[in-house]
Fold these 3 entries.
Entry 1:
Amino acid sequence: MTKLTQLPSWLALTDHVQEIPHMRDLFAQDSQRFDNMSLSAAGLFLDYSKNRATDKTLSLLFQLAKESNLSTHIAAMFKGDKINTTEQRAVLHTALRDNSGKATLVDDINIAPEIQTTLDKMAQFIDAVTSGRWQGYTGKKMTDVVSIGIGGSFLGPKVVSQALRPYWSGHVNCHFVANVDGTSISEKLKGLNPETTLFLMSSKSFGTQETLTNTLTAKAWLLEHGAKQQDVAHHFVAITSNVAKATEFGIDPKNIFPMWDWVGGRYSLWSAIGLPIAMLIGMDNFKALLAGANKMDKHFASAPFEENMPVIMAMLSLWYTNFYGAQSNVVLTYDHYLRGLPAYFQQLDMESNGKTTTLNGASVDYSTGPVIWGGEGTNGQHAYHQLLHQGTGLIPADFIMPLQSHNPIGEHHIQLASNCFGQTQALMQGRTYEESLSELSSSSLNEQDKALIAKHKVMPGNKPSNTLLMDKLTPDTLGALIALYEHRTFVQGVIWQLNSFDQWGVELGKILGNDVLERLESSKPSQTLDASSNGLINLFRQGTL
Ligand SMILES: O=P(O)(O)OC[C@H]1O[C@](O)(CO)[C@@H](O)[C@@H]1O
């Protein structure tokens, strides 16, 4: 594997970065820039013209993808090769949404039938619950479902459920518990009736401390309200790959939905981990979500790089990370239902590419995964857009907005759109000193003050952004959108020569946390750790400052 920074395209890009005019000039030079730098795929429209990129830039970035053997890596993933090399696992979240019936082999076993069987089991379970056939320990139908999980076993279902609120069937309410902080589950259980509450315990490993603790608390809550041990089976189902531990906990094996090693946690909402989503929106809409993702999969697997939405977004973001020193990317969702999506993309990308060791064990000598952050528009304009416009760093922005609202009242949506598009324009063109001074010409300020204030009003512009549009936020377009970002993350991991599908970095904290827990529970003060850890532990043990 050639060193990334020695690839011909990388060296050429290093020189090329000096050649990029201000975006204002790029637009002035090419009246067709918008038409030439936008494309549609899987129900999404991407305008990537507001980027610091010329035809040569794009050509070199696609050459870098080619020199990185991206096509080979894409084919290997879809084929089920064990590209998660450190765990010797395939990466097949794409198979979860491929209803073509095509065989996909993992260790010579076709996984397609089990995927379909699990979807059927989900449908039967949901029908039993929503029809009232599934009853609790006092014979009542379920009214509330509490999903217990964390990380990939929580955030996808939570964010997608929130995003598809217009599609909720209304049969049951759904609540999400993740944090081990007792406040989380306490607040969620307040007001729920144990007789009509069903817990979905989502944990691929069935070994995550937070999830186990919350599940035990949920079980205790049921028992405290009159349920017997044998009633637990009526109020718990599990989504896990660890059937033995789930059965040992007291969950009826027939109420266990499978998780597979070839699905990574942060890529798992398409599996039975998505049960809370399907419970809320129904299986037809859940299958539409899968179908939307599948459309993006087909686009990603077949489109030439120059017309490949995930590849274009990945390579432009990498351009800023590795050649402009951008430390973060911001995702701005101009749709209230999508307010949770930036956090989801944060987990997806940062747990995938926040790494420094390459596939062959070398340490990188280039930047890898940026910080992913963001929030809903227009709120961000009153919070952090100041820094986006006038801060010292370069923070490439993705703006996401549906053309039609689910709630088309008054002037709201057109004003939302005006803000979204206005922001991308301001980031691109900025405002020069001369323009600032001219705007102050009629003010009562004296000339010296006008000159000073004008300096404060200068905005450099040349701040890159992508704008992603869809007709409407539906299960289909949401599925395509999430798959787009999954593949964007994958492409960057390939170029950076990383394994995007393990997460060794989360292990040490868990191990040390278990040791700290023992010290916190000990009757003796902690003395053998560093002074800070000892001090903090002993303050907690004494319970007061
Ligand atoms: O589903 P599990 O095994 O409880 O793991 C929960 C989460 O913890 C991690 O392993 C580490 O954050 C994630 O990858 C995963 O989604």
Note: The chain has a mean pLDDT of 97.
Entry 2:
Amino acid sequence: MIKVGIVGGTGYTGVELLRLLAIHPQVSLEIITSRSEAGMPVSDLYPNLRGHVDLCFTVPDDAALSTCDVVFFATPHTVAMASVPSLIDRGVRVIDLSADFRLKNIPLWEKWYNTPHTCPHLAELAVYGLPELNREAIREAQLVAVAGCYPTAVQLGYMPLLEAGLIDPQHLIADAKSGVSGAGRKASFGTMLTEASENMKAYAVAGHRHLPEIRQGLNQMHGKEVGLTFVPHLTPMIRGIHATLYSQLLKSADLQSLFEQRFADEPFVDVMPAGSHPETRSVRGANVCRIAVHQPENADTVVVLSVIDNLVKGASGQAIQNMNIMFGLDERLGINHIATLP
Ligand SMILES: NC(=O)C1=CN([C@@H]2O[C@H](COP(=O)(O)OP(=O)(O)OC[C@H]3O[C@@H](n4cnc5c(N)ncnc54)[C@H](OP(=O)(O)O)[C@@H]3O)[C@@H](O)[C@H]2O)C=CC1
Ligand SMILES: CC(=O)N[C@@H](CCC(=O)OP(=O)(O)O)C(=O)O
């Protein structure tokens, strides 16, 4: 059994890790941390886990965490950076859901996260945890930086087109909508029911911290710098991301076949039949990205629709997918759930 520790067990991605890992056949949950709820039985805070998780929250302690085979960080940015060096030194494998190790360009990371990076050498060592892009490197990784939620939906949608060199890489436009759980569990005005329901708005149009992360991945697919406009929106749903991706075709191709072939062996990317419109509720609770590709009126604009559950394929499910790959398990183990509908 793989001994697992989770730092940040009270947050939305933390409890989603618990929901999935509690019934993972190869996992033994050992440590679940929370500073605010230390001492409380996990199932008192999250009754959905009654009968499945009998641990209490404990305060984060690197020495205790180092007894685990793998530690997940489901914490705000900069928290993992403080503990990961000592865990890595002690031979523990780490899967970080935050953005601490996602960017290779440290000055760029420091600019977008507005703080010094305290362990650039580990950012260099880290493997970006998007299995469809980096599966082989993930197998051997000691430190995985799980891809962000918007970045997962956008990168998977553009992947076949950029790899095939079929689109103008300088004028990519990603229009993305997220549910409110994307902002985490901490209280804020913007996520109050009275503010977020019956409402929709764009935010961070001038620049969102996911822009450099998405560009980094798209650059890898294209082999050179791409030009991307990324506009996130907050929508009145709890879970889900819907990305509508625009680009200009450089040459004609059978786009449906291109997408079907690119993802034929991917267990968690579902290319829908031609003409489909994937819905966020079709991936709710599931570790799946559903994609459809359109070419309206056969003109030269391609429109890709890409949907994920931000807490599953956009975070905790994908983190476990990475763990399965790192430990040589069947990639689908424990995360092959069907979405809840309606
Ligand atoms: N929500 C989403 O859709 C996605 C989130 N992510 C990323 O995952 C990470 C977690 O997100 P989310 O679950 O939404 O966040 P939440 O705000 O819901 O939860 C944060 C968790 O971290 C713990 N925590 C906070 N500060 C510290 C600290 N200094 N030391 C130790 N633990 C701490 C909190 O518990 P306590 O304060 O009790 O210790 C809590 O359990 C973030 O980096 C986020 O960007 C990634 C993809 C999608
Ligand atoms: C709706 C909302 O607020 N979403 C968050 C992104 C979700 C997230 O936590 O980002 P990571 O994937 O990088 O961890 C935001 O825009 O900052």
Note: The chain has a mean pLDDT of 97.
Entry 3:
Amino acid sequence: MTTRQSGGGRPPRKQVRLAARLPGVDGTTLRSGPRSRGPIDFRSFEQFARTAERGLFDFLLLAEGPEGPGEHRGRTDDLDAVGRPEPITVLNALAAVTDRLGLAAAVDATFNEPYELARRLASLDHLSAGRAAWHVVTTSDTSDTSGPSDTFDAPGAENVRRGGFPDHADRYSRAAEFVRTARALWDSWAPDATPRRFEHRGRHFTIEGEFTVPRCPQGRPVVIQAGDSDEGREFAAAVADVVFTWHGTPEASSLLYADVKARLAAHGRAPDELTIMPGITVVLGDTDAEAQERAAALRGQQISPRTAILALERVWGRDLSAYDPDGPLPGIDPAPERVLVQGQGQGQGRGRGRVRDPLAVAAEWRALSEAKGLSIRETVIETTGRQTLVGTPSGIAAALDVWVQTDAADGFVLVPHPDPGGLDDFVDQVVPLLQERGAFRTEYAGATLRSHLGLPEPVGRSGKVDP
Ligand SMILES: Cc1cc2nc3c(=O)[nH]c(=O)nc-3n(C[C@H](O)[C@H](O)[C@H](O)COP(=O)(O)O)c2cc1C
């Protein structure tokens, strides 16, 4: 949202939105070290949530995918969360140890059902007194290791798939109808707190009855969207309150920002009814050089020799286990077809498959490796990293503020690498500087997530929706 705040005689200033994301299936989080308790321990979630609330963040987002941990030729990826709890359940527990922080869960609109999910989200909204959000995800049917490393893969969705995997457009059409149906259910209680019958007949769902959860404190939980395709952006413009993106440079982000905001008018919405928040990873240091050193050390930890070979095999589509990670890239070309590395069943590792355009990615990697004299591992480190901002707290506060003031973003979803503790430095060192700049709140003004985001409470309607 583009609320502006004036303080200390300064002109009104667009406010930066902040949120934090804890990955589910993942390829970037470092859970090693003496303080790490692993991805299933509630205390890890609690620590993260308390830090985000101390930083006055709008919300904490728990990522999720239908797939199990990323696996390749029978071995689980080094950095994947093996054993992770179901996000909405965790958020219900977090509601009891936080007061103001918004609580957002990624839940797939391809594999769930509106009545059940609407109930679970409305229940979370009641238990948290108005802090629930739903990140509506649809799950990709391909992965692309040249982009973010935690893409979400259909091949891993066998554990929940019913019949064939729907194509891209169908997934979005189901998601749009899913959200409309869920909203009709949330709206189905009359203002005098009596339930009314709902009825929905559509292409994907035909349901009727009475919704069992009373109208929730926010009216409707906040809706977050992240897909980047044309359909994904249209879907966001039609239904989302927040867009979460991976466009991690101001240039890329401002293009997306202008595009998505321009789509709102066709849906009868104003630009500030949708908040756009790129996911960013920040590495801090007392000096720029120290921050760079720390960033390099983190990348080295993330890309072990084994992970480097694995990333290479996903591009080349061949068994490259005999290659030395500290040696040069393979002279042979990637396998041309979309066949996958031999080994498990059809040969595809779960969770992450082959990149979209292997020949182009291989050519890019080779060019980089030759130009800079990089080994396999160094090339993977250089090409798959996602450390958006590396620098001093003041440099980073200034950069974030500029992104927001120039409408390249409305705010950011922080995705820290080390867990736990990855968010503390940002909250302790960068948040106060954003506050000094008059670009970030110094206290929560309201109690609900809608109020943090400046969104009005929606007006309840009848239980009928258009298909
Ligand atoms: C920033 C971002 C975060 C995402 N987070 C999740 C997630 O937590 N779980 C999931 O299953 N899919 C997630 N997705 C996948 C999207 O829901 C969607 O399925 C995918 O991006 C394909 O749609 P598109 O072609 O419109 O981009 C995410 C996508 C993006 C861009």
Note: The longest helix spans residues 168-186.
